[in-house]
Write a structure and sequence with these properties.
With 194 residues, this protein is mainly α. Helices cover 80% and strands 0% of the residues. The longest helix has 33 residues.
Length: 194
């Protein structure tokens, strides 16, 4: 084994052994995580029978999936629209998308609460989803925009020259080329939301 491979293996073990130990000790009968009293599923049974905790997990999944879907649609449209824009317009849109990244989260949350209260919007899952969309949009936009800028324009032109409609070009050429960026942005957005 080469030294660089050994270093990589040691680093991966250092990062993942605590997670593996935590997973192993989750199957222990003991109330303490420091001792292993034999295998048991008692804690998973208690988790699944805890109604409020399961509802909270369900709400988190609803918010995360909804926010991710909405963010991917908006960020993809914005990134594709910026492709044909002038350099000045691209700088302005980038500045607009950078704003939520540089705003402290406490200020961001307080301003959204004040905004929703001023408009008499009832607080609930809808407002949480919209807050997550606004917060996560910047991250997804820059990931997708980087992928859009790397797209070869001649492939789309060739598809149009061969008689493909704009919808066919998007579905069969642009979207498959964007897929790595969309997957990365989706995973990042879902992780931020959760």
């Amino acid at each position: 084994m080469k030294p660089l491979q050994a270093l990589l293996l040691c680093t991966l073990l250092f990062l993942h052994l605590p997670v593996l130990a935590l997973a192993l000790f989750s199957f222990s009968r003991s109330r303490l995580s420091a001792t292993f009293d034999g295998p048991s599923l008692v804690w998973y049974e208690k988790l699944l029978n805890n109604g409020p905790l399961m509802r909270a997990m369900e709400n988190s999944l609803i918010v995360g999936l909804s926010a991710t879907t909405i963010v991917l649609l908006i960020a993809t449209a914005a990134a594709l629209a910026s492709r044909g824009a002038s350099a000045r317009s691209q700088r302005r849109s980038a500045s607009l998308f950078l704003l939520p990244l540089v705003t402290p989260e406490v200020v961001f949350g307080a301003s959204l609460l004040a905004f929703f209260s001023r408009l008499f919007v009832p607080l609930g899952l809808g407002t949480v989803v919209s807050a997550h969309v606004i917060f996560s949009l910047s991250f997804a936009y820059f990931v997708i925009r980087a992928r859009v800028q790397a797209l070869p324009s001649n492939v789309e032109e060739a598809a149009r020259d061969l008689g493909a409609t704009p919808a066919q070009v998007f579905r069969r050429v642009t979207l498959p080329l964007l897929m790595p960026g969309l997957v990365a942005a989706g995973l990042l957005t879902f992780s931020l939301s959760i």
